Amino acid sequence: MRVPGYLLRHRVTVEPYDGDSAYGPTYRPPVEVRALVAEGTRLTRNREGVEVASTAQVITAPGLDCPPESRITLPSGRVTKAISTAQHTAPGLPVPACTEVMCE
């Protein structure tokens, strides 16, 4: 079961991180996705395991390609970066699958 579309009330633009070049970070083409966005401060861990503050949390349908360091434009127009991405699934249980992105 997927997260119901009627819960995804916002639109965000995700530019998946593609690596670093001689000129700085590179990103793949932007993709607009439906999401549920909560802007608020929460503690989370980055890829190195260091505890950092997340200022926005984004919930989307499962399967979103958003590696850490991806650029995300929130509905407010603020541009942020992904700290971590988690795919939530619960096969056989009546809870929706989704992707959760913690943002700087």
Please sum up the structure shown:
By secondary structure, this protein is mainly β.
How would you sum up this structure, described in words?
This protein has strands at residues 10-15, 17-21, 24-27, 31-45, 51-60, 71-73, 79-88, 98-103. The protein is globular. The protein has one domain (5-60, 76-103). It has a six-stranded antiparallel beta barrel. A two-stranded antiparallel sheet has the order 2-3. It has no helices and eight strands. The protein starts with 9 loop residues before the first strand and ends with a strand. Helices cover 0% and strands 57% of the residues. It is an all-beta fold and 104 residues long.
Structural class: mainly beta
**Could you say which overall geometry the principal axes of the C-alpha atoms support?**
globular
In terms of quaternary structure, the protein is single chain
Number of domains: 1
Question: What's the count of strands?
Answer: 8
Helical run tally: 0
Rg over CA atoms: 14 Å
Q: Looking across the biggest beta sheet, what order are the strands in? A: 1-4-5-8-7-6
If you average the pLDDT, what whole number results? 93
Strand content: over 45%
Low-pLDDT stretches are none
Residue share in helix:
under 10%
Q: Could you tell me how far the N terminus lies from the C terminus, measured between alpha carbons in angstroms?
A: 29 Å
User: Secondary-structure element order, as H and E?
Assistant: EEEEEEEE
Q: Sheet with the most strands? A: 6 strands, antiparallel, barrel
Protein name: Head-to-tail stopper
Organism: Streptomyces echinoruber
